[in-house]
Amino acid sequence: MKLNKMVALSIVSLTAAITACSSVKKADVAAGANPSEEIASLDQKIEQGYAAQFDVLAQSDFEKARSYIKEAKEDLASNQSQKEILGDIGYAQSYYNRAAEKAATRKEKAPGILEARQKALDAGARKFPPTLKQLGKLDDDVRSESDKLEKMNAGEVSGLQAKYLQLELDAIMNTQLGKSAAQIQGAKDKKASSYAPMALKRAELDYQNAANLIAANRNGTSTYEAAVAKSNTTSDILSAILATTRSGKIDENSATKIVMQDRKIKNLEGQVAEAGTTLEMQGQELKRAGAALSMQESLDKARKEFTKEEADVFQQGDKLLIRLKSMNFASGRSDLPSDALPVLAKVKDVAQGLGPKALVVEGHTDSTGNAKINSKLSEERASAIAKYLETNGIEEGKLQSVGYGFKKPIASNKTSTGRAQNRRVDIVITPEKASAGKTEKSEQM
Q1: pLDDT (tens digit, 9 = 90+) per residue, 325-348?
Q2: Torsions phi, psi of 431, nearest 5?
Q3: Can you give the residue range of the structural domain that contains 358?
Q4: Which residue in 150, 176, 145, 179 sits closest to 163, CA to CA?
Q5: 382 within some domain
Q6: Four-residue CA torsion sign, 201, 206, 207, 211
Q7: Is residue 146 part of a domain?
Q8: What H or E segment, with its residue span, contains residue 362?
Q9: What is the pLDDT of residue 342?
Q10: Which terminal Cβ of the chain has fewer Cβ within 10 Å, N or C?
Protein backbone atom coordinates (compact mmCIF):
# COMPACT_ATOMS: atom_id res chain seq x y z
CA MET A 1 0.00 0.00 0.00
CA LYS A 2 2.77 2.40 0.89
CA LEU A 3 4.53 1.74 -2.43
CA ASN A 4 1.35 2.27 -4.44
CA LYS A 5 0.68 5.53 -2.56
CA MET A 6 4.19 6.80 -3.28
CA VAL A 7 3.84 5.91 -6.96
CA ALA A 8 0.50 7.70 -7.13
CA LEU A 9 1.92 10.83 -5.52
CA SER A 10 4.88 10.77 -7.90
CA ILE A 11 2.57 10.54 -10.91
CA VAL A 12 0.50 13.49 -9.62
CA SER A 13 3.59 15.58 -9.02
CA LEU A 14 5.05 14.70 -12.43
CA THR A 15 1.78 15.51 -14.18
CA ALA A 16 1.58 18.88 -12.39
CA ALA A 17 5.18 19.65 -13.29
CA ILE A 18 4.68 18.73 -16.97
CA THR A 19 1.50 20.85 -17.11
CA ALA A 20 3.23 23.80 -15.49
CA CYS A 21 6.29 23.54 -17.67
CA SER A 22 4.32 23.22 -20.84
CA SER A 23 2.35 26.40 -20.18
CA VAL A 24 5.36 28.65 -20.86
CA LYS A 25 8.60 28.26 -22.74
CA LYS A 26 11.56 28.18 -20.40
CA ALA A 27 13.74 31.25 -20.74
CA ASP A 28 17.28 30.70 -21.90
CA VAL A 29 19.84 30.96 -19.12
CA ALA A 30 23.53 30.58 -19.96
CA ALA A 31 24.96 27.26 -18.79
CA GLY A 32 27.80 29.10 -17.07
CA ALA A 33 25.56 31.58 -15.23
CA ASN A 34 26.06 31.98 -11.48
CA PRO A 35 22.88 30.59 -9.81
CA SER A 36 23.24 32.80 -6.72
CA GLU A 37 23.48 35.95 -8.83
CA GLU A 38 20.53 34.92 -10.99
CA ILE A 39 18.38 34.21 -7.93
CA ALA A 40 19.32 37.56 -6.37
CA SER A 41 18.36 39.34 -9.60
CA LEU A 42 14.98 37.58 -9.64
CA ASP A 43 14.36 38.50 -5.98
CA GLN A 44 14.77 42.16 -6.96
CA LYS A 45 12.31 41.72 -9.81
CA ILE A 46 9.76 40.14 -7.47
CA GLU A 47 9.97 43.22 -5.22
CA GLN A 48 9.45 45.41 -8.30
CA GLY A 49 6.50 43.22 -9.27
CA TYR A 50 4.82 43.81 -5.90
CA ALA A 51 5.34 47.54 -6.34
CA ALA A 52 3.73 47.34 -9.78
CA GLN A 53 0.85 45.29 -8.32
CA PHE A 54 1.55 42.11 -10.30
CA ASP A 55 0.13 40.15 -7.35
CA VAL A 56 -3.31 41.53 -8.26
CA LEU A 57 -3.10 42.05 -12.01
CA ALA A 58 -1.43 38.74 -12.88
CA GLN A 59 -1.53 36.67 -9.73
CA SER A 60 -1.26 33.18 -11.26
CA ASP A 61 1.90 33.82 -13.30
CA PHE A 62 3.42 35.96 -10.57
CA GLU A 63 2.92 33.24 -7.97
CA LYS A 64 4.43 30.62 -10.29
CA ALA A 65 7.48 32.81 -10.75
CA ARG A 66 7.83 33.08 -6.97
CA SER A 67 7.36 29.32 -6.62
CA TYR A 68 10.15 28.52 -9.08
CA ILE A 69 12.49 30.98 -7.35
CA LYS A 70 11.79 29.22 -4.06
CA GLU A 71 12.50 25.85 -5.68
CA ALA A 72 15.76 27.16 -7.10
CA LYS A 73 16.84 28.32 -3.65
CA GLU A 74 16.03 24.92 -2.14
CA ASP A 75 17.91 23.09 -4.89
CA LEU A 76 20.91 25.36 -4.41
CA ALA A 77 20.87 24.76 -0.64
CA SER A 78 20.73 20.97 -1.14
CA ASN A 79 23.60 20.96 -3.69
CA GLN A 80 21.49 19.88 -6.66
CA SER A 81 23.02 20.03 -10.14
CA GLN A 82 23.59 23.45 -11.69
CA LYS A 83 21.53 22.40 -14.70
CA GLU A 84 18.49 21.71 -12.52
CA ILE A 85 18.87 25.00 -10.62
CA LEU A 86 19.24 27.03 -13.82
CA GLY A 87 16.17 25.24 -15.18
CA ASP A 88 14.12 26.49 -12.22
CA ILE A 89 15.52 29.97 -12.81
CA GLY A 90 14.55 29.80 -16.49
CA TYR A 91 10.93 28.98 -15.68
CA ALA A 92 10.84 31.65 -12.95
CA GLN A 93 12.04 34.22 -15.49
CA SER A 94 9.44 33.16 -18.07
CA TYR A 95 6.53 33.32 -15.66
CA TYR A 96 7.72 36.67 -14.37
CA ASN A 97 7.95 38.07 -17.91
CA ARG A 98 4.45 36.87 -18.74
CA ALA A 99 3.10 38.35 -15.51
CA ALA A 100 4.71 41.67 -16.46
CA GLU A 101 3.11 41.61 -19.92
CA LYS A 102 -0.36 40.84 -18.54
CA ALA A 103 -0.02 43.46 -15.81
CA ALA A 104 1.00 46.12 -18.33
CA THR A 105 -2.03 45.41 -20.52
CA ARG A 106 -4.51 45.23 -17.67
CA LYS A 107 -3.13 48.28 -15.93
CA GLU A 108 -4.12 50.39 -18.89
CA LYS A 109 -7.71 49.17 -18.61
CA ALA A 110 -8.36 50.25 -15.04
CA PRO A 111 -5.82 52.82 -13.83
CA GLY A 112 -8.25 54.32 -11.33
CA ILE A 113 -8.61 51.05 -9.45
CA LEU A 114 -4.87 50.54 -9.15
CA GLU A 115 -4.20 54.11 -8.11
CA ALA A 116 -6.81 53.81 -5.39
CA ARG A 117 -5.31 50.50 -4.22
CA GLN A 118 -1.85 52.05 -4.05
CA LYS A 119 -3.23 54.87 -1.90
CA ALA A 120 -4.68 52.30 0.48
CA LEU A 121 -1.30 50.55 0.67
CA ASP A 122 0.57 53.82 1.20
CA ALA A 123 -1.86 54.72 4.01
CA GLY A 124 -0.93 51.51 5.83
CA ALA A 125 -3.81 49.17 5.01
CA ARG A 126 -1.51 46.18 5.65
CA LYS A 127 -0.59 47.40 9.17
CA PHE A 128 -3.94 46.89 10.87
CA PRO A 129 -5.83 43.56 11.11
CA PRO A 130 -9.26 44.94 10.10
CA THR A 131 -7.96 46.81 7.04
CA LEU A 132 -5.60 43.95 6.10
CA LYS A 133 -8.53 41.54 6.07
CA GLN A 134 -10.62 43.90 3.96
CA LEU A 135 -7.69 44.48 1.60
CA GLY A 136 -7.39 40.73 1.06
CA LYS A 137 -11.07 40.40 0.18
CA LEU A 138 -10.97 43.36 -2.19
CA ASP A 139 -7.78 42.12 -3.86
CA ASP A 140 -9.44 38.75 -4.40
CA ASP A 141 -12.34 40.51 -6.11
CA VAL A 142 -9.97 42.32 -8.45
CA ARG A 143 -7.96 39.16 -9.16
CA SER A 144 -11.10 37.25 -10.10
CA GLU A 145 -11.93 40.02 -12.58
CA SER A 146 -8.38 40.68 -13.79
CA ASP A 147 -8.94 38.85 -17.10
CA LYS A 148 -12.01 40.98 -17.75
CA LEU A 149 -10.84 44.42 -16.65
CA GLU A 150 -11.10 45.75 -20.19
CA LYS A 151 -14.74 44.67 -20.32
CA MET A 152 -15.80 46.41 -17.10
CA ASN A 153 -18.20 49.30 -17.38
CA ALA A 154 -17.64 52.64 -15.68
CA GLY A 155 -19.88 51.76 -12.74
CA GLU A 156 -17.98 48.56 -11.94
CA VAL A 157 -14.64 50.34 -12.13
CA SER A 158 -15.78 53.21 -9.91
CA GLY A 159 -17.26 50.74 -7.42
CA LEU A 160 -13.93 48.96 -6.90
CA GLN A 161 -12.11 52.27 -6.83
CA ALA A 162 -14.44 53.61 -4.13
CA LYS A 163 -13.84 50.53 -1.96
CA TYR A 164 -10.07 50.97 -2.10
CA LEU A 165 -10.42 54.68 -1.30
CA GLN A 166 -12.58 53.81 1.71
CA LEU A 167 -9.87 51.40 2.77
CA GLU A 168 -7.35 54.23 2.48
CA LEU A 169 -9.51 56.40 4.76
CA ASP A 170 -9.91 53.58 7.27
CA ALA A 171 -6.14 53.09 7.38
CA ILE A 172 -5.55 56.82 7.95
CA MET A 173 -8.15 56.80 10.74
CA ASN A 174 -6.39 53.84 12.36
CA THR A 175 -3.01 55.52 12.08
CA GLN A 176 -4.16 58.87 13.43
CA LEU A 177 -6.94 57.95 15.86
CA GLY A 178 -6.47 54.26 16.60
CA LYS A 179 -5.11 54.96 20.07
CA SER A 180 -7.95 57.33 20.94
CA ALA A 181 -10.57 54.91 19.66
CA ALA A 182 -9.10 52.06 21.72
CA GLN A 183 -8.93 54.15 24.89
CA ILE A 184 -12.49 55.40 24.51
CA GLN A 185 -13.83 51.91 23.88
CA GLY A 186 -11.80 50.57 26.80
CA ALA A 187 -13.22 53.29 29.03
CA LYS A 188 -16.76 52.42 27.97
CA ASP A 189 -16.10 48.77 28.78
CA LYS A 190 -15.05 49.87 32.28
CA LYS A 191 -18.29 51.82 32.76
CA ALA A 192 -16.91 55.31 32.16
CA SER A 193 -20.50 56.48 31.61
CA SER A 194 -21.00 55.97 35.36
CA TYR A 195 -17.54 56.75 36.77
CA ALA A 196 -16.38 59.57 34.46
CA PRO A 197 -19.27 60.66 32.18
CA MET A 198 -17.97 64.20 31.58
CA ALA A 199 -14.48 63.04 30.60
CA LEU A 200 -16.00 60.38 28.34
CA LYS A 201 -18.18 62.95 26.61
CA ARG A 202 -15.22 65.29 26.03
CA ALA A 203 -13.11 62.46 24.60
CA GLU A 204 -15.92 61.32 22.30
CA LEU A 205 -16.54 64.86 21.02
CA ASP A 206 -12.83 65.49 20.36
CA TYR A 207 -12.50 62.13 18.61
CA GLN A 208 -15.49 62.81 16.37
CA ASN A 209 -14.21 66.28 15.51
CA ALA A 210 -10.83 64.87 14.47
CA ALA A 211 -12.49 62.06 12.50
CA ASN A 212 -14.68 64.58 10.64
CA LEU A 213 -11.64 66.67 9.70
CA ILE A 214 -9.76 63.63 8.41
CA ALA A 215 -12.77 62.50 6.38
CA ALA A 216 -13.10 65.97 4.86
CA ASN A 217 -9.42 66.21 3.87
CA ARG A 218 -7.61 62.93 4.34
CA ASN A 219 -4.45 64.09 2.56
CA GLY A 220 -4.22 67.45 4.31
CA THR A 221 -2.33 66.48 7.46
CA SER A 222 -1.97 70.09 8.57
CA THR A 223 -5.75 70.53 8.65
CA TYR A 224 -6.34 67.80 11.21
CA GLU A 225 -3.11 67.26 13.15
CA ALA A 226 -4.10 69.66 15.96
CA ALA A 227 -7.49 67.98 16.33
CA VAL A 228 -5.83 64.55 16.40
CA ALA A 229 -3.40 65.70 19.10
CA LYS A 230 -6.32 67.03 21.14
CA SER A 231 -8.22 63.76 20.76
CA ASN A 232 -5.20 61.77 21.89
CA THR A 233 -4.79 64.06 24.89
CA THR A 234 -8.41 63.93 26.06
CA SER A 235 -8.56 60.14 25.62
CA ASP A 236 -5.40 59.87 27.75
CA ILE A 237 -7.00 62.08 30.37
CA LEU A 238 -10.19 60.00 30.24
CA SER A 239 -8.20 56.84 30.99
CA ALA A 240 -6.36 58.53 33.88
CA ILE A 241 -9.54 60.01 35.40
CA LEU A 242 -11.36 56.70 35.13
CA ALA A 243 -8.49 54.86 36.82
CA THR A 244 -8.47 57.44 39.62
CA THR A 245 -12.22 57.36 40.24
CA ARG A 246 -12.30 53.55 40.24
CA SER A 247 -9.24 53.01 42.44
CA GLY A 248 -9.79 55.89 44.86
CA LYS A 249 -13.58 55.76 44.85
CA ILE A 250 -13.79 59.55 44.52
CA ASP A 251 -16.03 61.73 42.40
CA GLU A 252 -15.11 62.73 38.86
CA ASN A 253 -14.45 66.41 39.64
CA SER A 254 -11.90 65.54 42.32
CA ALA A 255 -10.29 62.90 40.11
CA THR A 256 -10.03 65.42 37.28
CA LYS A 257 -8.21 67.91 39.49
CA ILE A 258 -5.77 65.25 40.66
CA VAL A 259 -5.06 64.07 37.12
CA MET A 260 -4.58 67.60 35.76
CA GLN A 261 -2.25 68.54 38.61
CA ASP A 262 -0.25 65.40 37.93
CA ARG A 263 0.00 66.25 34.22
CA LYS A 264 1.07 69.78 35.10
CA ILE A 265 3.87 68.41 37.26
CA LYS A 266 5.06 66.06 34.51
CA ASN A 267 5.02 68.92 31.98
CA LEU A 268 7.06 71.07 34.33
CA GLU A 269 9.55 68.27 34.87
CA GLY A 270 10.04 68.09 31.11
CA GLN A 271 10.53 71.84 30.90
CA VAL A 272 13.06 71.79 33.74
CA ALA A 273 15.04 69.12 31.91
CA GLU A 274 15.07 71.08 28.65
CA ALA A 275 15.63 74.67 29.73
CA GLY A 276 18.60 75.14 32.01
CA THR A 277 18.34 78.94 31.98
CA THR A 278 15.04 78.87 33.86
CA LEU A 279 15.72 75.97 36.20
CA GLU A 280 15.22 77.95 39.38
CA MET A 281 11.94 79.52 38.25
CA GLN A 282 10.56 76.24 36.93
CA GLY A 283 11.74 74.39 40.01
CA GLN A 284 9.69 76.74 42.19
CA GLU A 285 6.66 76.28 39.97
CA LEU A 286 7.13 72.52 40.11
CA LYS A 287 7.16 72.64 43.90
CA ARG A 288 3.99 74.72 43.94
CA ALA A 289 2.28 72.29 41.58
CA GLY A 290 3.45 69.37 43.72
CA ALA A 291 2.09 71.02 46.86
CA ALA A 292 -1.25 71.68 45.12
CA LEU A 293 -1.51 68.04 44.05
CA SER A 294 -0.64 66.86 47.55
CA MET A 295 -3.29 69.15 49.02
CA GLN A 296 -5.93 67.91 46.59
CA GLU A 297 -5.18 64.33 47.53
CA SER A 298 -5.30 65.20 51.23
CA LEU A 299 -8.69 66.89 50.79
CA ASP A 300 -10.14 63.88 49.05
CA LYS A 301 -8.79 61.49 51.65
CA ALA A 302 -9.98 63.61 54.59
CA ARG A 303 -13.43 64.13 53.10
CA LYS A 304 -13.98 60.37 53.04
CA GLU A 305 -13.44 60.15 56.79
CA PHE A 306 -16.40 62.30 57.80
CA THR A 307 -20.11 62.15 57.16
CA LYS A 308 -21.91 65.37 56.18
CA GLU A 309 -23.36 65.54 59.69
CA GLU A 310 -19.92 65.27 61.33
CA ALA A 311 -17.75 67.76 59.46
CA ASP A 312 -16.97 69.65 56.27
CA VAL A 313 -13.46 69.73 54.79
CA PHE A 314 -12.12 72.78 52.95
CA GLN A 315 -8.89 74.06 51.48
CA GLN A 316 -7.77 77.35 53.01
CA GLY A 317 -4.74 78.59 51.13
CA ASP A 318 -2.01 76.02 51.83
CA LYS A 319 -3.94 74.66 54.81
CA LEU A 320 -6.65 72.06 55.32
CA LEU A 321 -9.65 73.12 57.36
CA ILE A 322 -11.93 70.61 59.14
CA ARG A 323 -15.13 72.31 60.31
CA LEU A 324 -16.69 70.20 63.06
CA LYS A 325 -20.50 70.26 63.05
CA SER A 326 -21.39 67.70 65.73
CA MET A 327 -19.51 68.63 68.90
CA ASN A 328 -22.74 69.30 70.83
CA PHE A 329 -21.14 70.96 73.86
CA ALA A 330 -23.53 71.42 76.74
CA SER A 331 -24.68 75.03 77.12
CA GLY A 332 -22.01 77.09 78.85
CA ARG A 333 -19.65 74.12 79.27
CA SER A 334 -16.34 73.08 77.68
CA ASP A 335 -15.95 69.45 78.74
CA LEU A 336 -15.92 67.11 75.77
CA PRO A 337 -19.22 65.29 75.14
CA SER A 338 -18.72 61.50 74.94
CA ASP A 339 -20.55 61.29 71.62
CA ALA A 340 -18.01 63.73 70.08
CA LEU A 341 -15.00 61.50 70.80
CA PRO A 342 -15.36 59.30 67.67
CA VAL A 343 -15.30 62.42 65.49
CA LEU A 344 -12.23 63.78 67.29
CA ALA A 345 -10.52 60.41 66.79
CA LYS A 346 -11.06 60.85 63.05
CA VAL A 347 -9.57 64.36 63.26
CA LYS A 348 -6.52 62.95 65.00
CA ASP A 349 -6.10 60.23 62.35
CA VAL A 350 -6.38 62.72 59.48
CA ALA A 351 -3.89 65.11 61.14
CA GLN A 352 -1.36 62.36 61.78
CA GLY A 353 -1.73 61.15 58.22
CA LEU A 354 -0.74 64.60 56.97
CA GLY A 355 2.32 64.85 59.22
CA PRO A 356 1.26 68.37 60.33
CA LYS A 357 3.69 71.22 60.51
CA ALA A 358 1.13 73.06 62.65
CA LEU A 359 -2.42 72.52 63.92
CA VAL A 360 -4.68 75.25 65.24
CA VAL A 361 -7.99 74.58 67.03
CA GLU A 362 -10.37 77.54 66.66
CA GLY A 363 -13.43 77.88 68.90
CA HIS A 364 -16.41 79.96 67.72
CA THR A 365 -19.80 80.86 69.22
CA ASP A 366 -22.92 82.66 68.09
CA SER A 367 -23.71 86.23 69.23
CA THR A 368 -26.10 85.23 71.99
CA GLY A 369 -24.91 86.43 75.43
CA ASN A 370 -21.94 88.39 76.70
CA ALA A 371 -19.00 88.85 74.34
CA LYS A 372 -16.40 88.31 77.05
CA ILE A 373 -18.06 85.14 78.31
CA ASN A 374 -18.40 83.82 74.75
CA SER A 375 -14.74 84.51 74.03
CA LYS A 376 -13.65 82.68 77.19
CA LEU A 377 -16.00 79.76 76.48
CA SER A 378 -14.78 79.37 72.90
CA GLU A 379 -11.16 79.36 74.11
CA GLU A 380 -11.90 76.71 76.74
CA ARG A 381 -13.63 74.49 74.22
CA ALA A 382 -10.78 74.86 71.73
CA SER A 383 -8.29 74.11 74.48
CA ALA A 384 -10.18 70.97 75.51
CA ILE A 385 -10.03 69.65 71.95
CA ALA A 386 -6.33 70.54 71.63
CA LYS A 387 -5.66 68.68 74.89
CA TYR A 388 -7.43 65.60 73.51
CA LEU A 389 -5.32 65.69 70.34
CA GLU A 390 -2.12 66.09 72.36
CA THR A 391 -3.04 63.18 74.62
CA ASN A 392 -3.69 61.02 71.58
CA GLY A 393 -0.47 61.60 69.72
CA ILE A 394 -0.26 65.12 68.21
CA GLU A 395 2.95 66.87 69.33
CA GLU A 396 2.35 69.67 71.81
CA GLY A 397 4.78 71.98 70.01
CA LYS A 398 2.67 71.84 66.86
CA LEU A 399 -0.63 72.54 68.63
CA GLN A 400 -2.31 75.87 69.26
CA SER A 401 -5.82 76.73 70.44
CA VAL A 402 -7.63 80.05 70.16
CA GLY A 403 -11.14 81.28 71.00
CA TYR A 404 -12.77 83.89 68.79
CA GLY A 405 -16.17 84.07 70.45
CA PHE A 406 -18.55 85.51 67.88
CA LYS A 407 -15.95 87.66 66.07
CA LYS A 408 -15.87 85.43 62.97
CA PRO A 409 -19.40 84.44 62.02
CA ILE A 410 -19.96 82.44 58.84
CA ALA A 411 -23.73 83.02 58.79
CA SER A 412 -26.27 85.50 60.07
CA ASN A 413 -26.86 85.48 63.84
CA LYS A 414 -30.42 86.69 63.24
CA THR A 415 -31.75 83.19 62.55
CA SER A 416 -31.55 79.97 64.56
CA THR A 417 -30.02 78.19 61.53
CA GLY A 418 -27.34 80.85 61.16
CA ARG A 419 -26.54 80.78 64.88
CA ALA A 420 -26.18 77.00 64.76
CA GLN A 421 -23.68 77.35 61.94
CA ASN A 422 -21.69 79.93 63.87
CA ARG A 423 -21.40 77.62 66.91
CA ARG A 424 -18.53 75.57 65.58
CA VAL A 425 -14.97 74.36 65.99
CA ASP A 426 -12.50 74.71 63.10
CA ILE A 427 -9.37 72.56 62.96
CA VAL A 428 -6.78 74.23 60.71
CA ILE A 429 -3.94 71.91 59.66
CA THR A 430 -0.79 73.02 57.87
CA PRO A 431 0.68 69.90 56.18
CA GLU A 432 4.46 69.59 56.24
CA LYS A 433 4.51 69.39 52.43
CA ALA A 434 2.67 72.69 52.12
CA SER A 435 5.89 74.53 52.95
CA ALA A 436 7.03 73.77 49.38
CA GLY A 437 4.68 76.44 48.05
CA LYS A 438 1.27 78.00 48.42
CA THR A 439 -1.66 77.52 46.13
CA GLU A 440 -2.80 80.59 44.30
CA LYS A 441 -6.43 80.29 45.24
CA SER A 442 -8.35 78.80 48.14
CA GLU A 443 -10.88 76.21 47.15
CA GLN A 444 -13.97 75.06 48.96
CA MET A 445 -14.75 71.40 48.50
Answers
A1: 878 888 888 899 888 899 999 999
A2: -65, 150
A3: 304-436
A4: 145
A5: yes
A6: positive
A7: yes
A8: strand 356-364
A9: 93
A10: N
